[in-house]
Amino acid sequence: MALWSNHWCRPQGDCGWQHAFIEYCLHSRNEAEEWLQTTTCLSGYKFRQFLKRHGHRCLKEFDVRSITWEMDAKILIKLLQSLAGVGKEELKKQDDDLSKIFSQLHVSLSFVHKCLLRFVLPNCRRAVRARAAGKSLTIKSFHHWRKGYRHLAKLMVSEGRLPDEDLIFFLTIDEIEELLETRSPSIISRANYRKKMYPILDDYKFPEIIKGNQNQLMMKKNRRTPTNS
To answer: Which domain of life is it from (predicted)?
Structure first.
């Protein structure tokens, strides 16, 4: 491990540490995580700063059951592995010159329209950044609920109220409260049934735009086509 650490910390130009990390990361995900979490090199510092700022993000991040990058950094490392060979050269910063942007449009703009766009376009960009920041803050707040539910699940398992920590995500708040008071086995049965059905429901795909009665559309979709006799 020390040999790899020395190799990564050695100055190799602007992207040398990236190539060294990519080469090693493709071999061992567990050791790559351990190194990134403990090294004093620039790559480890940037990785930890990224987790500190964006560790509450993940796939299906509005699902309280999802595992975030903070909870399991291997998920993020796996994503980095898939992106490692995509672009090895630094991306050049896009030119923000509005005059150049206007010249690339396929429509003619009057002087008034250009003045309006010079006012509207920067505000649109700021609005997009504000929307992304607002979404991140919402998910970060939601992440505290996620950690709270997981902590409660551990306590309930330790007290023998739940057989599995994961079952808490298949209970309503009222059912959790009732389970804390009564230890009802019927609630556990309902949670197990919901967990069993979850992969089927999670596999449903819906169109972005739906017209008509959704129940009828699902019935038509699931209806078997008649076979020729």
So the answer is: Eukaryota
Q: How many residues does the chain have?
A: 229
> What does DSSP assign to residue 56?
T
Q: How many angstroms separate the most distant Cα atoms in the chain?
A: 74
CB 73 within 8 A of CB 33: yes
Pairwise CA distance, residues 20 & 11, whole Å: 11
Q: What is the pLDDT of residues 6-65, one digit of tens each?
A: 444 444 444 455 555 555 555 577 777 888 888 888 888 888 999 999 999 998 999 999
Whether 161 and 146 have beta carbons less than 8 Å apart is answered as: no
What's the chain's Rg over C-alpha atoms? 26
pTM (predicted TM-score): 0.68
Cα gap 154→164, rounded to integer Å = 9
Q: What tokens appear for 52 in the block?
A: 């500190």
All residues at 6 or more sequence positions from 102 whose CB lies less than 8 Å from its CB, including other chains: 109, 114, 117
Residues 6+ apart with CB under 8 A from 18: 43, 88
pLDDT of the residue at 36: 82
